[in-house]
Amino acid sequence: MCLYVVFESRIINAAGYICRLAVSNIEPFSVVLQFTPGFDGNSSITKWTVQALSARNATWTTIYETATEQQDTKSIEVLNLSPYMEYQLRLVANNVVGASEPSEPTRQFQTIQVRGKKGLQLSVQMENSTIQVVL
Question: What is the three-class DSSP state of 8?
């Protein structure tokens, strides 16, 4: 009697390169980042890391991370941005092995200003003059 044992070998690597980043739904505090995921390295993506360049950060800085259980993720809502700020974003995929190379950055964009509420009064004082604006 012969006994055969078959082993299935799967090499697990860090996640692959992410491409086609695009920014949509630009709001004062958030944007939607759309992308095409790269190869997952034979292991589920566990976290997405969003890095940014902005007027506040001259180097790439992690500004948002989100854990994921969905393996077909193609967009992320990036929260906690600052109004009326210029940004460039890039994305990193993380699996059990580690992080992918960062994607190419998005085009530069600017979050929109916060709009005032109806009836909100704004007073500005300028050297002995007062300007009152009612929105």
Answer: coil
Q: Which residues contact 10 (CB under 8 A, 6 or more apart)?
A: 42
Quick one: CA dihedral 75, 57, 112, 110, positive or negative?
negative
Chain-wide mean pLDDT for the chain? Answer: 79
Structural domains in the chain? 19-134 (2.60.40.10)
- Can you spell out the DSSP letters for 31-81? EEEEEE----TTS---EEEEEEEESS-SS-EEEEEEE---TT--EEEE--P
Considering the chain, what percentage of its residues have pLDDT values greater than 90? 41
Residues in the chain: 135
Q: Among 134, 135, 33, which Cα is nearest to 93's?
A: 33
Please give the model's pTM, rounded to 2 decimal places.
0.73
How do residues 83-107 score in pLDDT, each as one tens digit? Answer: 999 999 999 988 888 888 899 999 9
Residue with tokens 């993720």: 73
